[in-house]
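Researcher: Quick test of sequence recovery. Tokens follow.
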């Protein structure tokens, strides 16, 4: 792995920024270099939010917006639009919070057969474990399942250390359930 660039799209309050930070922390624990940073527009709950995470073997990590990501993660179903997929590299990963299966999402959005598609109903999982529509930890399970970038145990350990007690345990359960329930459609399967 040289560098894996991830662009997160969510709404304020869903935890896109935190998801990127947790992933970066886990990458560092596993011996990689990583950087996570947000890009805000109107800073209010519910407003569209972009966050970025770079994971690399190189200590010199640029802090610039990711225009051509290897991975695009959509935390909010209302953002399932072509404009948010823009720039995704051919062969990259499109990971979405939706109850749709990957083939259904491909048809709905008329997606090209140029990248891998994964789906998970992170909203239902978050509501089950957290009793709130905060989908960041659930979507992290989908990211790990799709990319195999890191060990799921490392993500869970970072979450438990960042959110101690019952909140950490509930978030760990959300990660694990999403990891187990993510449906991954590899590029060759979509053709």
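Model:
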């Amino acid at each position: 792995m040289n560098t894996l660039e991830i662009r997160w799209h969510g709404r304020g309050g869903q935890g896109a920024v935190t998801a990127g930070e947790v992933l970066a922390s886990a990458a560092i624990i596993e011996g990689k270099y990583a950087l996570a940073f947000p890009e805000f527009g109107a800073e209010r709950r519910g407003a569209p939010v972009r966050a970025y995470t770079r994971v690399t073997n190189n200590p010199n990590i640029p802090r610039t917006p990711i225009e051509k990501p290897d991975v695009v993660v959509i935390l909010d179903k209302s953002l399932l639009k072509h404009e948010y997929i823009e720039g995704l590299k051919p062969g990259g990963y499109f990971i979405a919070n939706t109850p749709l299966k990957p083939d259904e999402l491909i048809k709905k959005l008329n997606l090209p057969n140029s990248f891998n598609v994964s789906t998970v109903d992170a909203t239902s999982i978050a509501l089950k474990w957290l009793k709130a529509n905060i989908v960041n930890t659930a979507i992290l399970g989908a990211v790990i399942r799709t990319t195999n970038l890191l060990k799921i145990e490392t993500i869970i350990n970072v979450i438990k250390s960042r959110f101690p007690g019952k909140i950490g345990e509930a978030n760990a359960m959300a990660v694990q359930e999403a990891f187990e329930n993510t449906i991954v459609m590899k590029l060759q399967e979509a053709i």
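Residues 165-181 form the longest helix (17 residues).
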